[in-house]
Design a protein that fits this description.
The protein contains no helices and six strands. It is mainly β. Strands 1, 2, 3, 4, 5 and 6 form a six-stranded antiparallel beta sheet that branches.
Length: 84
């Protein structure tokens, strides 16, 4: 990802990697399904600028249940973030 940050002269380049998984645990009476889902997303800055430093930036993680009815899917859970 390339981004421009206010107050920084150069463009910042950042790598993002997302690993996501879901497991269906059951079905509902109306035909919908429910289960659990989780993901982990890592951000790494690729270049040194006046703003962000090169290297590890942050790690976001999510875990929680989901319900799917037709084409609509709702997820409610815990989203945490660890960063410098």
């Amino acid at each position: 990802e390339q981004r421009f940050i206010d107050g920084v002269q150069e463009m910042s380049n950042r790598f993002r990697y997302l690993l996501r998984g879901s497991q269906q645990l059951g079905t509902r009476e109306n035909g919908g399904v429910w289960g659990i889902t989780g993901y982990n997303e890592i951000f790494v800055n690729l270049n040194q600028t006046d703003g962000p430093m090169e290297g590890f930036d942050r790690d976001r993680f999510f875990v929680g249940p989901f319900i799917r009815e037709g084409i609509v899917r709702a997820e409610v859970g815990y989203l945490g973030e660890y960063g410098k």
